[in-house]
Design goal:
The structure holds 3 protein chains of 3 kinds. By secondary structure, chain B is α+β, with helices and mostly antiparallel strands. In chain B, 33% of the residues lie in helices and 33% in strands. In chain B, strands 3-2-1-4-5 form a 5-stranded antiparallel beta sheet, with no helix packed on it. The chains are: A alpha/beta, B alpha+beta, C alpha+beta.
């Protein structure tokens, strides 16, 4: 696949890895010191584990997983609200597949579906609108989740629904914004970071400028990164080079996709249909002001929060769950008390264990092994006969 | 969720200029290109697809520059390894 | 790795070896997806109730001695939606699936039964089509449908047509195959490109609006098994047809049952470009996507070249490939060496509510 395979080449990865190790040694100050970079986006976390990227990193570079997993930051109360909407008569609830197993205080969409609710997975919010057109006697709700990457698609769908006068369609809006989340991380006292691997797909929409306060006010470099494993490795290289050269700025590794100024059309679509909420609860991070989107008054008729009677009750996270610390990068997934025993992808307690982009699920599903122990097993060559 | 994948535009809708047929490794899907400027993409262009929408046109020149950087590092590394091996033989 | 992390991993390992328990109050779609939830249901509920040495092996068929011979016996139900799809239909699937469950024990399939659950209002013309393709598939696999049953349920109580087939076969060869027989040093092969059937069904449902030329790989594997066992009469440890849950699920079953590590080389796994493309669009891992005409072969490493030649000499194994090896440690784990040069785990599928694919 073009723009994919060339960014997965193992030989180039080894070469880049040796450059990264060299750079670590050449940074003036503390030789042998450990460098910690946070990949903000859950998509990056997924890539890192899925391709075994850490096998290429020297021991002196650690990637800390950040809060950019849209499913992981949904608080339990919002899941309960969504299930309450889904269980009302004549409702078809539609959502992305990641949401199906996220636990609220009374269970998951998957269980609610088994108990009789009509909950369907869609690939795009436009598919949800189509279901509304096909089922005029039902009320079709789209549960919108995601950062600025996904919000424009919900916005475009709302614009279309309004234009076509589809009045049995509604949006349960849970879109969140990335900058307040990064600010919450920067304000967290217990975390020492040397820089950020910036969220590439969010940046296709918001561009690179919104990150400029990070080097300016907080003295941390950020490199906006693509999602193939070589993209991430190159971003780490660029961050280290900034440190080696004494620079601290926003750079764009993913310039093949991300324009410096983002996508003005997408931003306009969001602005036309949505506005910032005064505050929103993030799982594990608590209430963050101006960190989420709700529908504008002009789109009240499509706002599921107004159409349906939602409980809107705040539900505290289970006591044992340490998703908040994991989302902030303070704890590694395996350092959580319930990780892998009480909390598994099969029976998740916290959201980080549900989404394929959650740090806990990624570590449990892909990275749960001792590298020393597998070294022998993976050193045996597969007979090279029969390669495709 | 934040999944974005590259696809090649095969055709742009005639009656519906906000729709394009894209090809991803031999499978095709109609996607919405309403987030791009009108006339920005045509057959042969590559776009980044996310939940049924083209988010961005892939900039071939930027991609080429990135690849050249990576290949440069790879080549330098290969040369060094070769030199290292040779020096051992002697 | 710190000792702390190793302790956590050991604790997880112990937790995973505990007896499984069904925690849900109701059956969800995940219980039918072929992954972890399906295994939990089978082991905690069915095996617990019916426990006997034959069933405990949890193979696709039971092999039992009778009248001086050895016989294989199996059953499978088919609920695929849509009923007709590129490359086949539910009838063909119902014959091939059961034939394959017999064949992978090394048995020659003999006779099938066919039970139909039909929904009131189901077009007779569709039923005729399904039955005709069952007859053709049975003829191609050299089996006969010797008994059957029909029930009709009210409109809305079934999705058109469900079929259950059972089959018996005879073991004429002196082979003992099983997921518990893999040993360090063995090679792992797959008989052709993976994921064709699962992707075909997902696309055929039309909900994703993705089009492609891909077709189901449904096929009877008895001939391919014969070709393999003729060429390699000793040294084949295990055969499994990779249906629900895909190749990854089979490899996990082998790793767990034999208490070995299975190490797969990502670059060696054969896959059509279209399967890869659809998987990338949908964000799914093709290792978990169902096949209906592919099998996983575990064979003594020294016999791998002969096994590969035998598979490739048969039309249904033309795309066969050696995809990995068996190692002693870490036990009960499937590892993938990625094309990128890293290593990761390939775990059991965690209950994604996939569409009904078989």
């Amino acid at each position: 696949m073009r723009f994919v395979d060339e960014f997965r080449d193992a030989g180039t990865a080894r070469a880049l890895a040796s450059r990264i190790a060299e750079l670590c040694r050449s940074i003036p100050g503390e030789p042998g010191r450990e460098y910690k970079f946070m990949e903000v986006c859950g998509g990056h976390t997924h890539t890192i584990y899925k391709h075994g990227l850490e096998d290429h990193l020297p021991d002196t570079v650690t990637l800390v997983h950040g809060p950019g997993c849209p499913v992981c930051v949904i608080p339990m109360g919002r899941v309960d609200d969504a299930i309450a909407i889904a269980e009302q008569p004549d409702v078809i609830m539609t959502t992305f597949s990641d949401m199906m197993r996220v636990p609220g205080s009374r269970g998951t969409f998957l269980e609610s579906n088994a108990a009789g609710a009509d909950i369907r997975m869609v690939y795009s919010p436009l598919d949800s609108l189509k279901i509304a057109r096909q089922n005029p006697d039902k009320r079709v709700v789209f549960m919108g989740i995601g950062f600025e990457t996904t919000a424009p698609s919900t916005a475009m769908t709302l614009l279309r629904a309004a234009r076509e006068g589809i009045d049995n369609f509604a949006v349960f809006c849970n879109h969140v914004t990335i900058i307040p989340a990064i600010k919450a991380i920067l304000d967290s006292p217990d975390l020492r970071l040397d820089g950020f691997v910036g969220p590439g797909h969010v940046s296709t929409v918001i561009g690179c400028r919104p990150y400029e306060f990070i080097p300016r006010d907080h003295g941390k470099p950020l490199v906006c990164s693509g999602f193939e494993p070589l993209d991430i490795l190159q971003s780490v290289h660029m961050l280290l080079r900034q440190l080696a050269e004494g620079r601290c700025e926003v750079e764009n590794q993913y310039s093949r996709v991300v324009p410096w100024d983002g996508n003005p059309r997408a931003l306009r679509a969001i602005a036309e249909t949505m506005q910032l909420r005064p505050y929103f609860e993030w799982r594990g991070l608590g209430f963050i002001s101006h960190s989420a989107l709700q529908l504008r008054d002009a789109y009240r008729a499509f706002d599921a929060e107004l159409i349906f009677d939602v409980p809107g009750v705040r539900v505290a996270d289970p006591k044992a769950c340490q998703c908040g610390e994991v989302l902030k990068g303070v704890l590694k997934p395996w350092e959580c008390k319930v990780f892998g025993t009480a909390c598994t992808p099969e029976t998740p307690i916290g959201t980080c264990m549900v989404s394929s982009e959650g740090a806990c699920a990624a570590y449990y599903n892909f990275g749960r092994f001792s590298r020393e122990r597998v070294r022998h097993a993976t050193a045996l060559p597969t007979p090279s006969i029969g390669r495709r | 969720m934040c999944l974005g994948i590259p696809g090649e535009v095969v055709e742009v809708g005639v009656d519906r200029p906000d729709l394009a047929m894209v090809d991803v490794s031999g499978v095709k899907r109609a996607i919405n290109i309403g987030l791009l400027d009108e006339g920005e993409v045509g057959p042969g262009d590559w776009v980044l697809i996310h939940v049924g929408f083209a988010m961005s046109k892939i900039d071939e020149a930027e991609a080429k520059a990135a690849m050249e950087f990576l290949e440069g590092i790879g080549q330098a590394y290969a040369d060094e390894m070769a030199a290292l091996l040779e020096s051992r033989i002697e | 790795m710190t000792t702390d992390e190793q302790q956590v991993l050991d604790r997880i390992d112990r937790a995973r070896r505990r007896r499984p328990r069904v925690r849900e109050e109701r059956i969800t779609m995940a219980h039918g997806a072929g992954g972890k939830a399906t295994h939990t249901l089978v082991e905690a509920l069915f095996l617990d109730a019916f426990r006997n040495p034959q069933l405990e092996r949890l193979e696709d068929q039971a092999v039992f001695p009778a009248a001086g011979g050895r016989f294989a016996f199996t059953t499978d139900s088919y609920v695929v939606s849509p009923l007709f799809f590129p490359g086949g239909d539910i009838g063909e699937l119902a014959v091939n699936g059961t034939v394959n469950d017999l064949a992978v024990s090394g048995a020659s399939p003999l006779h099938l039964s066919a039970g139909f659950i039909l929904e009131e209002g189901f077009p007779v013309a569709d039923l005729q089509r399904i039955v005709a393709s069952m007859a053709a598939a049975a003829a191609a696999a050299n089996v006969t449908v010797v008994t059957g049953d029909t029930k009709v349920v009210q409109r809305g109580k079934a999705d058109g047509c469900y079929i259950t087939t059972a089959g018996v076969g005879v073991l004429e060869r002196d082979v003992e195959l099983g997921a518990d027989r893999a040993r360090p040093g063995d090679a792992v092969l797959v008989s052709g490109p993976i994921g064709d059937h699962g992707v075909t069904i997902m696309l055929a449902r039309g909900e994703l609006e993705i089009s492609s030329d891909i077709a189901s790989d449904t096929a009877p594997l008895a001939g391919l098994v014969d070709a393999l066992l003729d060429a390699v009469p000793r040294g084949v440890r295990c055969l499994r047809d990779a249906t629900r849950g895909g190749v990854a699920t089979i490899l996990n079953e082998v790793a767990a049952a034999s208490d070995v590590a299975v190490v797969v080389d990502e670059a060696a796994v054969p896959m059509r470009a279209e399967v890869r493309g659809a998987s990338e669009i949908l964000g799914i891992d093709p290792l978990y996507v169902a096949c209906e005409g592919r099998m996983v072969v575990v064979v003594d490493g020294a016999q791998a070249p002969a096994a590969l030649d035998a598979l490739r000499s048969h039309p249904l194994g033309a795309g066969a490939s050696v995809v990995g090896t068996v190692a002693a440690d870490p036990p009960a784990l499937v590892l993938l060496r990625t094309e990128f040069g890293g290593t990761r785990i390939v775990d059991m599928l965690i209950g994604d509510p996939l569409p009904r694919i078989c």
